[in-house]
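Sat 14:20. Reprocessing the chain from the morning session after the first attempt stalled halfway. Input below, unchanged.
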Amino acid sequence: MKIAVVGSPQSGKSALTEALQKRADLHSKNNSAGVHLEFQEVHDLDLLHSHTYDMVLQVVDATRLEESLMLTPHIIDEHEKIVLAIGRYDLLLKTDHSLDLPKLQELIGVPTCLVSVRKNYGLDECLTMVTEEVLKPESSAHPIYHLPDQENDDAYRAYVHGVLTQTLTHAKNDRHRTRLEQIDRVLTTPWLGFPIMLAILYFVFWCTFTLGAYPQDWIAAGIDWLCNTAHAHIADGWFSGLLIDGVLQGVGAVLAFLPNIIILFFFISLMEDSGYMAREAYLMDAIMHRVGLHGRSFVPMLMGFGCNVPAIMAARDIRNPKDRTLTMLMVPFMSCSARLPVYMLFVDTFFPRNKALVMISLYAVGIALSILFAVLMKRTKWFRQPQDDSVNELPEFRLPKARNTAAHIWERVADYLQKICTVILWASIIIWALEYFPSQDLNDLENSYLAMIGKAVAPLMEPLGFDWKMSVCLLTGLPAKEAIVSTLAILYGGDISAAGFTPVTAFSFMIFVLLYFPCFATIATLRHEAGKAWAWFTVGHSLVLAWFMSFLVYQIGSLIL
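Finished this time. Tokens:
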């Protein structure tokens, strides 16, 4: 018998799935029904209804009852057999709230139990309930009542509200609030929450640059030592040029930013695991509603700061198809980790006194333009629709686990190193070859194939303050933005401070990198999730917007400075 285990993110469904499967395997020969249960964790409702499952076990987070129970009527309406497993009930009691479990079970009509994997509580009872329910001929859940012409989401929201009104007892007054609830009140109040969020982001970027500078210098010194050693032992020629100027300098320029990547994702992991990232999404909920989007749309946007590809895929959880597609189109505006090495290189070189502020401004520009983009798109025929309300309860604060933090960091580091060993390496070799041929003289760069390509594009980029070398760097960033750093290292010998850049040109360049063509993987994911037309639309509008914004930055900045 196949049992689907579903629940909201971070509800503990993974741990419960593993724990119940172990018990099911141990008792499969001895249970009274003589059946074997196979528990499978399911993240997407579409997958739940497209596969054949004998029953659904829904994991309900007691600290996020409204959000968790919103999934229940979706399952019931599909005539699925269901058992509710309520976790973290002890945390609910600490807030002076309580839940009438027998009444809840009576109203919904499904077996309900309390479970805790960490405390090894209620697991056997839950397994017994699942076994008994799966053998019943039909579901015992009560159907969802709809008013005439009432949409499903409205009926489901009314259903959950009615259930909780009759079963959930709230704390009597604010004196019973826990200390963490009082902290939440501060963090989610706009006039306090936004300044605190900006202060935290400033601290994160300050640590990224300040703490990362030392190992970054060590790696750069190691690369210089390798280059000098290679120069001393390998005769001058095409091979030494390829190895030193192409591979070592190109790949080394990107590798030097690895410590900064580790530090940044260490803090991002802490914010995610502790629950603070959910508070940031809560703060943005009102803004998202003002532009006509569902509050949950900000969650994939936050994920986009790590990588646009999984962020686009995370938008699948948004049930409204128009909001889902629009959220996917907004994700590429977020500064993914691939752009970080470019930002860090330019910020460290041209804005040494305001590193954190300049970094925050780049992220803020991406978010602001994504919201403006959504406002405009909401007025088109493709996305115009009545505004949808959101259910946005907050998870409780948690102490991040070292194992989870290490896993998150390693996932990003592994992805970064994989790019260095594949895309960046090949891009460095190709750029060096285009620079070396046909004259086979690196001192004759103006007559190289690379110069021919760059000069063909240069007239279009001159109004932005870019020369042909900068234009070539942007072209190499199409498959992966990290390749821009390796190309800069090859073309400018690792020192962009003497390459004719000004602070205005540098900021214009970073704005272009922020906004132009997402990487190939992002476009492929958009094509799969939203369709070919929207993928091509993203390619086109991103190039136009990047050129226009960089043009404004350079022209206005040149007049002021």
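The longest strand covers residues 55-61.
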